[in-house]
Sequence to fold (108 residues):
Amino acid sequence: MKLTADIWVSAYLTRLRLVEIPAFIVQRGDGTAGAVLVKINTLDGKACCYQRSFDLMTGDRKWMVLAEGDEAEVDQSVSKQCSFDPDLWVIEVEDKQGRHLLDEPGLD
Fold:
């Protein structure tokens, strides 16, 4: 059974909060089927943005890097994606260590 986007986002934010990693919703997308981007802000002018991709060979969903580098460039990439998809969710995680928890079970 596939989770709706709003339930997944809520669970993800709760997991981050439990380990004291600040995160917030930058853009709220479609609650049922909106795609999610996760931007990691390391608070040093750098950032990385992840998107969930579908592997046609295995059927798995994996988090892949959409953009990485200077925060302004990553923000431009995120803005471009938002202009294509008004149903898109954007979550910003602020962590100096770059932790995002996306590699943990249940978040794929």
